[in-house]
Amino acid sequence: MPQLWRKNLINITPYVAGEQPKNDNIIKLNANENPYPPSPEVQRVLSQKSADDLKVYPSMDAAALRKALADRYGLKPENVFCGNGSDDVLAVAFRAFFNSNKPVFYPDITYSFYPVWCRLLKIPYETKPVNERFEIDVTDYYGENGGVVIPNPNAPTSIGVGEQFITDLLEHNRDCIVIIDEAYVDFGRYSCVELVKKYDNLIVTQTFSKSRSLAGMRVGMAFANEELISYMQAVKDSYNSYPLDQIAIETAVASLGDEEYFKATVEKVKATRDEAKEKFRAMGFMVTDSETNFLFCTHPKHKAKDIFEYVRSQGIFIRYFDLPRIDNYLRITIGTPEQMAELYKAVEKVLTARGPRRTG
Q1: What confidence score (pLDDT) does residue 63 get?
Q2: What is the signed CA dihedral for 42, 43, 48, 49, rounded to 10 degrees?
Q3: Rounded CA gap, 164 and 146, in Å?
Q4: 3-class SS at 314?
Q5: Rounded to two decimals, what is the model's pTM?
Q6: What does DSSP assign to residue 97?
Q7: CA 39 to each of CA 17, 62, 68, 110: distance values in angstroms, whole numbers, following the listed order
Q8: Integer Cα distance of 289 and 295 in angstroms
Q9: DSSP string, 230-268
Q10: What confidence tens digit (pLDDT) does each residue in 162-185 have?
């Protein structure tokens, strides 16, 4: 007799993160992590912690971090929401605001967690195709919808947009919630956090995982008007009233207090990124103009999967997506100059050894 309870199990394809290496002898350029350590102020906080500190619960609303973030951006703590990485923050926003029967709009080539949340939460959605240069057309988002999600800069394409695009998008979407996912914004040209003071339907999300080297702490935040933040807080309190642990809160506050180190690290990554872009173009790759801490590229004569598999065999992890429209592209996280030099050697070797291979 069939087990009838099985028909009620959820049927969903989960998000797949970049491969995690099983040993330390790997150059890991597949998860968009920062190759440099966090601020020395973070180490100072960690050195002062003891196991005894962990016997009590952390702040329910990450009050100290919300205040530090509000101070940095000229907002009030009531304009700030914190969660376990921007993934958690975005999931809360999806639950809180995308509850109509109209489809949520987002690009067809973008962060692959968006469709996972939509399917999990039974949110109708409609993807809008980016053009052949992987650019987002703002006019595609003028139509009636149940919400809009735009990553700026976008991933995995690495392409960013400026203030004119964002204000145009907001002016044509007054009756829905607009989420701008700024996971990589510190490596780009424009953040729209200031616009939350003007647009009461705007939510801007960010993370400490990339530019602040705190991926292991899972610190994310959202900026919006007080009403929207209160709804997000209510959703969060309905399933987990303690979103960030004590150490994550304190290290994040310490990181915010060291602006000089933060800016210096970002500039190092950007300089290596721009150098890498020219290196890959010199090897024949087509590379988008990145505003992130990674490159998105393809070679007209070599299959991306072949390059991916070869450099992996050499102990270098990059990212390959077996997905429509981008199945011949690679996403390469920017590492230290030394790590990138090893990658260049491996890529040059595979290009030389295999000769022209790509067809079709």
Answers
A1: 95
A2: 70
A3: 22
A4: coil
A5: 0.93
A6: H
A7: 26, 20, 16, 30
A8: 8
A9: HHHHHHHHTT-S--S-HHHHHHHHHHHT-HHHHHHHHHH
A10: 999 999 999 999 999 999 999 999
